[in-house]
Amino acid sequence: xxxxxxxxxxxxxxxxxxxxxxxxxxxxxxxxxxxxxxxxxxxxxxxxxxxxxxxxxxxxxxxxxxxxxxxxxxxxxxxxxxxxxxxxxxxxxxxxxxxxxxxxxxxxxxxxxxxxxxxxxxxxxxxxxxxxxxxxxxxxxxxxxxxxxxxxxxxxxxxxxxxxxxxxxxxxxxxxxxxxxxxxxxxxxxxxxxxxxxxxxxxxxxxxxxxxxxxxxxxxxxxxxxxxxxxxxxxxxxxxxxxxxxxxxxxxxxxxxxxxxxxxxxxxxxxxxxxxxxxxxxxxxxxxxxxxxxxxxxxxxxxxxxxxxxxxxxxxxxxxxxxxxxxxxxxxxxxxxxx
Length: 339
Description:
Helix content is 29%, strand content 17%. The chain has 12 helices and 12 strands.
């Protein structure tokens, strides 16, 4: 247990994907409550830095370019981190590159998961527990157990501080034009095929939603074609394809005031959690007990009622159903999604 004077400079490392970074934003909230005068920096992969814009508790966002000049960028980051001499480096990942950055950061306190190949060089190693009832936010928070006084968790039932994003006033102004009437948001895609509720099912859902309310399809630029297909097949004038037209924080500002947000087990789910937005999360090949379920107050999960021996087939999803039938998704009924 740490018994020295309060740390003043923290570095949080999470260079995985969008959803992982969103869930990791609970840590600045937690650390700031315990050490309000501490300086917090956050390291992400290039492309995810915009998520942390406007964050009131972060001093600087460091960026690792993992696609171009990967190792040169890593070396420069290592030099920068060594120079800054952080009091505490907290690594949320279990891979070698960030483990090396952590182990050889020069920080007197390095904390990470025991599964990291460099964890033997960390000051503190924490078990990564993939068990029912343990959310990813809880796993991350387990790294904050080495101070003499407990962290101040305001939610007495879960002992959890939720992730949070901070869209700017300009972000809210940008999406204000879409918020004149009560509306619904749908994020129909995922990087992984077996996490995607079938697009035909999304069309069925749209036909069951109120025809007088706008429906906004959300996603990245790469999702635009899939959303165009849903838009065309739905044949509804009140459906608008916004895929690729909004930034991540603008999307966060939009989902925050939706009557409902329908999402897969993917990044938009966590975007809703960070905005405490109403959420219906559909789990196909994966299951909520992996620890990536919705955290918003008005959230619910939907999954097949069929007892499938093949489900879950993997932790992160696949590019195709290994058995070719995809029953984990096709057996989820529209009535379930509507609640």
